[in-house]
What does this fold into?
Amino acid sequence: PARAAAAAPVETAALEREDHPVLRLADRVDRRGIVVLIAVLAVGIVIPLAARRSPTEIPMPVPFALPLPLATPAPVEPGHLEIAFQHPLRSGTLRVYVDDAQVLEEALSGKVTKKILSVRLRKGSVKEVLDVTPGEHVIRVEVDGTGWDGSRRIRGMFKSGETRRLEATLDGLIKKDLTLVWGS
It folds into this structure.
């Protein structure tokens, strides 16, 4: 009888364990097995999440290099000012200034092209090409001649490597006038 009383609780405990599936799993797997199972589940969740993230670029290490010497800037090619001057003077002097710095002084002479009674009509010309730094400049043309003295100014923009033509004309029979026009 004493044995029967002791055996009864064991059977009851066994019946209770069979009713719960968690208890049945715990009976078959020890504590280390549960930890391994949780780790496998965690890895199964983390790896797919990490695969969905956009790949980030890993910066490549830059190999050590000595600093390069500073490059000297390439020289800027100048712009060009082509002066075409027409005049009716016997003699004189043409001076050209760029921003009040004299860049040209040329002697003038004109040849007789027509004689009308005692009046002699003359024509002369000067054509020169000058280098000018790129940018905006004020060009002054000054003429000192027999029968006329004066000057005119004109503003112009010069680009590197490009030529601008300035047509300067001194004309008029009685009243002479100097005109400056940018040509094509």
Notes: Residues 48 and 54 are 12 Å apart (CA to CA).
